[in-house]
Write a structure and sequence with these properties.
With about 170 residues, this protein is of the alpha+beta class. It has one domain. It is built from four helices and seven strands; from the N terminus they run H-H-H-E-E-E-H-E-E-E-E. The protein has a seven-stranded antiparallel beta sheet with strand order 1-2-3-4-5-6-7, covered by helices on one side. The chain is elongated and about 55 Å long. About 20% of the residues are buried.
Length: about 170
Amino acid sequence: MKNALIYFTVLIFSLPIQAQKKGAKKAHLNEAYLTSVSMQDAPDIINRMQEAVANFKVKKIESFNWKADGTCEYTFEIPACKIVAAYDKAGTVLNTVEVYQDVKVPYNFVEMVQNEYQNAMIVASKFSIAYSNEKATRKSLQLSILNNNQTMELNFDITDSFESVSTLAGSVRE
């Protein structure tokens, strides 16, 4: 009995104890931006770049060239990835133009290309996002493929995720 009492005492004190529930989590300043542009199946580099844009502290940089309308632009750039973001004085993302070159192409696109063009090889990819807090976000994927010694470009409009595109409905430019 004594051993059981010690066991239950240790067990009770080793369990995480929640005192009081904390208040609702504070909303992220740029939650609307992140919700609009993020995609669960996007490559990590895209997610990390978008997090950097959302978490950027405009107020801490004094050397910005503020425009007359109270906005400023900042460019986030690493090799093959570039985001030009416009902010207001509060730090809210107003709009972005995002271009990601040669990111890993999701498997469903590789499979669609291989099914449609048996001898094709994807030679380049470009994923673009145009975000505006006043308009719908536009996402597109452009693939350059080499098929029987011909280069073609396939363009896809992406709605929610890369998985949302299930057919090879892109436009072809030779």
